[in-house]
Design brief:
Distance between the termini: 64 Å
Radius of gyration: 22 Å
Strand order of the largest sheet: 1-2
Helix content: over 70%
Largest sheet: 2 strands, antiparallel
Structural class: mainly alpha
Shape: globular
Number of helices: 20
Length: about 500
Amino acid sequence: MSAFQILLLVGAYFLVLLLISYFTGRNDSNTDFFKAGRQSPWYLVAFGMVGASLSGVTFISVPGWVETSQFSYMQVVLGYLVGYFVVAFVLLPIYYRLNLTSIYEYLKGRFGPTSHKTGAFFFFISRVLGAAFRLFLVAIVLQQFVFDDFGIPFEITVVISILLIWIYTNKGGIKTIVWTDTLQTAFMILAVILSIIFINRELDWSFGEFLASNELKTYSRFLFIDDFLARNHFIKSFIGGMFVTICMTGLDQDMMQKNLTCTNLKEAQKNMISFSFVLVGVTFLFMLLGALLFIYANKNDIAIPLMDGSPKTDLLFPEIALNSGLGLTLSITFMLGLIAAAYSSADSALTSLTTSFCVDFIKMDGKTEAEQKSIRKRTHIWMSLALVIVIVAFKYILSSNVIDSLLTVAGYTYGPLLGLFAFGIFTKHQIRDKYVWVVALLSVVVISILGSLEPEYLGGYELGYELLPLNGMLTFLGLWLIRKEKQQ
């Protein structure tokens, strides 16, 4: 598939998103932008959330991770499943009872303004980094397979990507995203299914023969229980995955903003539970695709593509889909899935960052609807610029697999949110609010030092995703130390 054909495909896809944006954003109101009028069907939200949760990271990086990690990521995903139930039956009832626009408003009512802004700040950092990770991965694929042919630098590729997202989310916000994410999830799932079918056909395998093959057994081990000190031990991965979900979904304005567009709590809970099971199944399909990609590459002597002189397994899927002669249909399928993966996570991230900044950091109360809309639109532009800067920076500092980097960073940035919400929900104590930011910052510093230690300093123990609950625990203990003696 030529670079020009890919550009035409991207343009056609964008026109479809723009059409959806036109019909969903005609009111251009703050209510629709922030909450979609709380009229979104739960099943629509659930299906769209699959694409937003998976994103370009899962679409490319998870298959590319299979060679070194096999199916160990499924241990984390099973932890996700339990985490979604916690979100549905512990956190969602609180958010709906308080009728929140930004979930961090809970911290203001429970503890005070410093806690509110501390929570919102850590979300802001987490979501900027998370969205940037996801978009970075898609941008390097577009750069390597499209824009390099036209001599366009990476920085311009990033600006174009963000500009397209800004255009179709500028008016409708979350109302537009509920509908566009549904379309994008469908394209993403269709892409992985068709990719598995086409590659199996090229290998003269049926799907059953692929599942029974000795080649698949080389990659398909998913239960690691032999060495508790190892980073990928089942217990550590499962617990880490559970807390990753609680934080990256339940304590994340991006994901919760979609849930809060449902009509009521019961609808939102149905959305969360159904979405969680679909997500596990779809992630398993991505793991199968990853194994199939490496099997196909080995049989056809396809080398791992290089980026800046080093092998980059994240680029194996696009290399096979676009350059291995498997046909135009697979190329189109891959590009549609990739674009869908990119936009389904980035559009909601941009909207949630705008929402959080407007609600949590800017005092909009007392301003007219027109003034609030003006603030919202300016903030939307500044959030877009922030994403551009961070994505470009990643090109020069990121070296490891993107999905692994994303989950590792979550351990540092979401920990204070976990500790704050846990202390608020499970204790009745009030705290000295003005010191909350100190507790959160010290917790991150301690965890950063701990996470940088080599295993030999910990008796051979390799720290992994359990850094997140440890971070939350440290924050919780710090809040306990600054609690007020008088209970609520």
